[in-house]
Amino acid sequence: MTVFKPAELFRRLRDGHTLITGNSRLAGVLANRYADWRAAAGDRQWPRAAILSWNAWLDRLWQDAALAGVTGTDRAIPGEQQVLSLWSVVLDRSDLAAGLLRPRALARQVRDSRRLAVEWGVDFDAAAWRAGVAGNENHAAFAQWNRAFEARCAKHGWLPPEDRATVLARAAAAGERLVRTPVDLLG
Predict the structure, then answer these.
(1) How far apart are CA 165 and CA 25, in angstroms?
(2) pLDDT grade, residue 126 (50/70/90)?
């Protein structure tokens, strides 16, 4: 088990490292503690520490990659409400979702399911994924809705937010230098 040593972490931040946290709340708490640490050390002013949540870091990488013309970054990333609206349209046009009492609630669940599947590296084109469709109506519904969602996104030039990491990882593997400072992860 690694013991959290704030002074060591804060020295790394002072020296130019970027800290990526699991969420924005932790990033905010650590930014405040870093400021307290700098003030206690007698510093009167300092640049803001590079402490970002995972999503904020992906946003920054995506923006930098898009400005640099990295392959795959030419598609628009819909915002949270736009993604929910896309899923709602998919569900509204689906016979499998006809008669739902709360389609907006299902849109959130389907969005979250797809986000998890992408994070876990599920290959939606794999035979094992397609094989499960025949025996499970929930699986079949999700597979159909996901195909419709992806087709709608492709038609309009959108990239679901959860797909950004895959595009950025491919770019890094192809030799693109996306990260320019040492990175530490926490949380």
Answers:
(1) 21
(2) confident
Distance in angstroms (rounded) separating the CA atoms of residues 182 and 15: 10
Segments in the chain forming alpha helices (H) = 6-14, 24-40, 54-67, 80-92, 103-119, 127-131, 137-156, 164-173
Report if pTM > 0.70: yes
Residue burial 61-85, b: 16+ Cβ < 10 Å; e: rest: bbebbeeeebebbebebbeeeebbe
Q: Which two tokens stand for residue 144?
A: 């159909």
Cβ–Cβ < 8 Å for 22, 54: yes
Beta bridge partners of 186: 21
pLDDT digits (tens, 9 = 90+) for 82-93: 999 999 999 888
Share the mean pLDDT of the chain: 89
